[in-house]
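1st attempt posting a full record on here, be nice pls
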Amino acid sequence: MREATTRGLGLAFAVAYAVFVGWLFVRQPQTIAQVTGGLSAAIGTYNVDAQALADGRRFFRNGQFVEARLAFARADPALRDAQTQFYIAYSFYRQGWGRLYHDDLLYTEGLAAIDRALALAPAGRLVVADPDLMMHTAEELKAELEAGVRRDASDFNPLRLLEVRK
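the predicted structure (as tokens):
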């Protein structure tokens, strides 16, 4: 092999490695699944596990929210699918909703999940066409989660007992 070819290949490898390290620094993935999922999403080959997603939806409809989140995490281990993140946020909302109070910890985790969903959605707009849900857009869900975390005078309104969980 000629010296110029060797130097060219070495330079290309060094640049590719620097880009990879820069990507790791910017994205800061926490697991190997997030690294591989992020790289496959960058080249357009990332797919969610359809069976795990279906299992998660079934658990979600049965009110088994912890199990649903585990199935959704199995379906989208790299946290790169907006719709799956929407369902995760919705499961935090459903589990944390109560007639007398809302669980702030679950609602806060739901806000983190819906923010991920909005960041992944094309043009920041996410609509889920699921007839079993009462909220179909990420904006509606985010507003409900933010209202549940916020403390104001409406928290002491006795008519709150008549609210319907969405």
